Amino acid sequence: MSDSEHHFEAKADAGASKTYPQQAGTIRKNGHIVIKNRPCKVVEVSTSKTGKHGHAKCHFVAIDIFNGKKLEDIVPSSHNCDVPEVTRTEYQLIDISEDGFVSLLTANGDTKDDLRLPTDEALVSQLKDGFAEGKDLMVTVLSAMGEEQISAIKTL
User: Fold this and answer.
1) Whether pLDDT at 117 is above 50
2) How far is 151 from 156, CA to CA, in rounded Å?
3) Where would I find the Translation initiation factor 5A C-terminal domain in this sequence (predicted)?
4) In terms of pLDDT, which residue wins out, 155 or 53?
5) pTM of the full predicted structure?
């Protein structure tokens, strides 16, 4: 066999830096957790006592950080859960296009044009009104697990 016969292709994404494992018993309220493959913010945690057959269990009630849906999960407290890597980045608003995309100015001077208007109607009206009035607006973009969304707006 010669070396030219071996071809390796990377077909799978390891998902590195999107999530990391954390013991269920150490996740607290206002922390983050992945439930049903969605990044969520924990709004309630209750822990049951160790039963006759095994582990204490953690009951998580969480809200999806992108669509606001309520999700629940029960995990043995000694087991690991996936925790999403959540980042907040601030950009200056340059433009709002007709098709619902926003144009943002990054810290290094480039433009970011791949982001849609947020799903939250109050944020959308605040964004459009401020932009129409000619205000300089900074938007906070929340990103986790390959998704991004505008989560907050402030006037400069």
Assistant:
1) yes
2) 16
3) 85-154
4) 155
5) 0.78
